[in-house]
UniProtKB/TrEMBL annotation, chain A:
Belongs to the HMG-CoA lyase family. It is an enzyme of class 4 (lyase). Keywords: Acetylation, Disulfide bond, Lipid metabolism, Lyase, Metal-binding, Mitochondrion, Peroxisome. Pathway: Metabolic intermediate metabolism; (S)-3-hydroxy-3-methylglutaryl-CoA degradation; acetoacetate from (S)-3-hydroxy-3-methylglutaryl-CoA: step 1/1. GO terms for biological process: ketone body biosynthetic process; L-leucine catabolic process. It is found in: Mitochondrion matrix; Peroxisome. This is Hydroxymethylglutaryl-CoA lyase, mitochondrial. Homodimer; disulfide-linked. Can also form homotetramers. Its main location: mitochondrion.
UniProtKB/TrEMBL annotation, chain B:
It comes from the Eukaryota. It comes from Chelydra serpentina. One of its GO terms (molecular function) is metal ion binding. The keyword Protease does not apply. Pathway: Metabolic intermediate metabolism; (S)-3-hydroxy-3-methylglutaryl-CoA degradation; acetoacetate from (S)-3-hydroxy-3-methylglutaryl-CoA: step 1/1. Residues 30-297 form the Pyruvate carboxyltransferase domain. CDD domains: DRE_TIM_HMGL. The keyword Acetylation applies. This is Hydroxymethylglutaryl-CoA lyase, mitochondrial. Keywords: Acetylation, Disulfide bond, Lipid metabolism, Lyase, Metal-binding, Mitochondrion, Peroxisome. It is found in: Mitochondrion matrix; Peroxisome.
Length: 336, 322
C-alpha cells in the first residue's frame, strides 16, 4: 500500500491516478478532527444554489436538458435542498426562461426539496402550477439595492412579499426568505447590522421558515459577519438562519466558519462556485460547494453529501459551460 | 482598478470595513511574512529575470511589510529559479525596519548568504519522515543535525534564524501527520535557537479543526508568540485555517503576494494564500498590519504581468480586470 502510494505520489497527477487505482485520495475526505466540534454544530444543511443563483449569473446559457441533468446529478449527492430555478420574467433573467420545463423535467428524489424563486404573486402562481412545493423570496437590507433591482423601496417589496406569503400559506407551501447585502451594498456601501436585523425580523414574522443572509458582493470579513449575526440573532432564532457568503474577496469560508461558531447550521453554496459577480467583472461569486464540504467534513460536521459525486456534477456543468471550476478542491484533484 | 474605484468609490475606502467588535480574542496586530519572492517564485513555472525579482522586492518594501523573504541559497541544480540569489540579495534596496531573510538549507548555503550580506536566515524542517527523505534524502533527525551546524554558525555571527516546519497538517506521502510529531519537531527547532517557528500546511489539506488540534499540541512546547502559520490555499481552506490560528493567539502569518507559487504535488492547484486576501481579512477584523493594500496590489499586478499569469488573489480579481 505504501509502495503504491509512493509511486502514485511521485507522479504529478497523483490524485487522478489514485482515483483510477481505486485508492480514494485520503484528503478528499479531509481529516476529521475530534477536537473540532467544540461549539460547532454537529450537522449542517447545505442549500445548493448552483442551478439557480449559479447559472443565473453565468454569462453562458445552457440548454434545458443540461440544467435537468445537473440537478439530477446533484440529487444523487445527498444534498437535501437544491434550488432548481426562478419564476421570473425571461425579459429580466433569460437564463431562467425555461423554469417550467426544468421544474417539470427533473427527477424529484424523495427527501430532497427543490425550492424555486418567486419574486411576486404571479411568479408564485406559475411556480405552484408547475408543481413547486417550496418557494423563495428575495429581500435586501439596502434601500438603494432594492430600488435598483426591483424599482421599489424595501417596505414596498415586503408588501409584495406578503401577497406571496398569504398565497403560500393558503397552499401550505413553505417559503424561504433571502436578505441580500447583509455585509455591504454595491451602492450604499456599509450596511447597518440593525437594518439587516429589522428586515430579517419582518420576513421571519411574515412566515418565512428560514432566513438566508447573503453577503451579496462578498465584502464581509469574519468581524462584520459576527457583528451582523449578533444583531440578527436578537430577532430571529439561530435555528432559522442561514448564511450565503460570496467569495468575491476570498472571505467566504472564513466568514462561514464564524457563522458556524455562532450556531448557524445552514449554509448556501454553489457547485463549482458557479455564478460570478454582476458588480465586478471577472470576480467570483458564490462559494464552491465542494470547498465548503471539504471544510465541514474536515471539521467532523455531517452534511450527508458525497464529495465525489458532487465533484462529478461540478465537472459536468463546467464542461457544459466551457469554464474552469472555481472550486479549489476540484482544481487540486484533477486538471480542470 | 481606477475604473472600478471610480464606479465604486466607496470600495477604495471600504476595502477595509472595520468591525469594532471583531477584536474579541484576536491579536491587535499581525506581522505578515511575505514569501512571494522566494516560496512564490520558486514554485512558479516561469522564471523571471533578476531585475524583475529586485523590482518586485523593492515594490514590496514600499508597502509597509516588515519581513520579505528575498531568496534561497540553495544549489541552482535543485532550484534554478533561485540561481541568482547573490545578485538579488545584493541588488535590492534594504529599507530600514524591513528584514530580508533568505533560505539556507545547510552550512554552505549559510556561509554564502552571510558573505552576500544576509542579516537573517531560515531553515526548513518537516514533520514527516517520508517528505524529508524525498526532499533532502535524509531522516528528520539527520536534517536537524545539519541545521544545528547552521545554528552554531548563525549564533556565532549573531544572525537570527527562523525555522519552518512543513507538512504540519498532512503530507503528500505519509498522509495524516500526528500533532505530537509536529510539536516534537517544532520544539527541537525552537530549542536549537530559532526565534520563530513557521508551521506550514504544505499541501493545504488542513481544515480549521486539524489546525486547532495541531496548534494545541505545539503550543504546549513552543510559546504562541514564537509561532507563525503558513497556510496553503490548495483546497481553499487557508483563510479559515488562518482565522482559527489567530483565534488561538498566533500573530504571525506567512503569505505570498498575488498568491504566487503553485503546488508541486497537484498540477494546476494553487499554493500560497494571497497576501492581498489575507490583508483584506485582517484589516476587516480591525487588526493592524502596517501594510498599504493599494501598494501591495500594485506589486502583485506587476509580478503577474512579468510572469504572464493571472493573479490568484480574489481581492485583485474583484478590483480590476486581472
Amino acid at each position: 500500500m505504501l509502495a503504491n502510494l509512493l509511486s502514485i505520489a511521485s507522479s504529478s497527477d497523483f490524485i487522478t491516478r489514485a482515483m483510477i487505482f481505486g485508492v480514494k485520495p485520503w484528503f478528499l475526505d479531509s481529516y476529521v478532527s475530534s477536537t473540532a466540534a467544540g461549539s460547532l454544530p454537529k450537522q449542517v444543511k447545505i442549500v445548493e444554489v448552483g442551478p439557480r443563483d449559479g447559472l443565473q449569473n453565468e454569462k453562458n446559457i445552457v440548454p434545458t436538458q443540461v440544467k435537468i441533468s445537473l440537478i439530477n446529478m446533484l440529487s444523487e449527492t445527498g444534498l437535501s435542498v437544491i434550488e432548481a430555478t426562478s419564476f421570473v420574467s425571461p425579459k429580466w433573467v433569460p437564463q431562467m426562461a425555461d423554469h417550467t420545463e426544468v421544474l417539470q423535467g427533473i427527477q424529484k428524489f424523495p427527501g430532497v426539496s427543490y425550492p424555486v424563486l418567486t419574486p411576486n404573486l404571479k411568479g408564485f402562481q406559475a411556480a405552484v402550477a408547475a408543481g413547486a412545493k417550496e418557494v423563495s423570496i428575495f429581500g435586501a437590507a439596502s434601500e438603494l439595492f432594492t430600488k435598483k433591482n426591483i424599482n421599489c423601496s424595501i417596505e414596498e417589496s415586503l408588501q409584495r412579499f406578503s401577497e406571496v406569503m398569504h398565497a403560500a400559506g393558503a397552499a401550505s407551501v413553505p417559503v424561504r426568505g433571502y436578505v441580500s447585502c447583509v455585509l455591504g451594498c454595491p451602492y450604499e456601501g456599509k450596511i447597518a447590522p440593525a437594518k439587516v436585523a429589522e428586515v430579517s425580523k419582518k420576513m421571519y414574522s411574515m412566515g418565512c421558515y428560514e432566513i438566508s443572509l447573503g453577503d451579496t458582493i462578498g465584502v464581509g470579513t469574519p468581524g462584520s459577519m459576527k457583528e451582523m449575526l449578533s444583531a440578527v440573532m436578537k430577532e430571529v432564532p439561530v435555528g432559522a438562519l442561514a448564511v450565503h457568503c460570496h467569495d468575491t474577496y476570498g472571505q467566504a469560508l472564513a466568514n462561514t466558519l464564524v457563522a458556524l461558531q455562532m450556531g448557524v447550521s445552514v449554509v448556501d453554496s454553489s457547485v463549482a462556485g458557479l455564478g460570478g459577480c454582476p458588480y465586478a467583472q471577472g470576480a467570483s461569486g458564490n462559494v464552491a460547494t465542494e470547498d465548503l464540504v471539504y471544510m465541514l467534513h474536515g471539521l467532523g460536521i455531517h452534511t450527508g453529501v458525497d464529495q465525489q459525486k458532487l465533484m462529478e456534477a461540478g465537472v459536468f456543468i463546467c464542461k457544459a459551460l466551457n469554464r474552469r471550476t472555481s472550486s479549489k478542491v476540484v482544481q487540486a484533484s484533477c486538471r480542470l
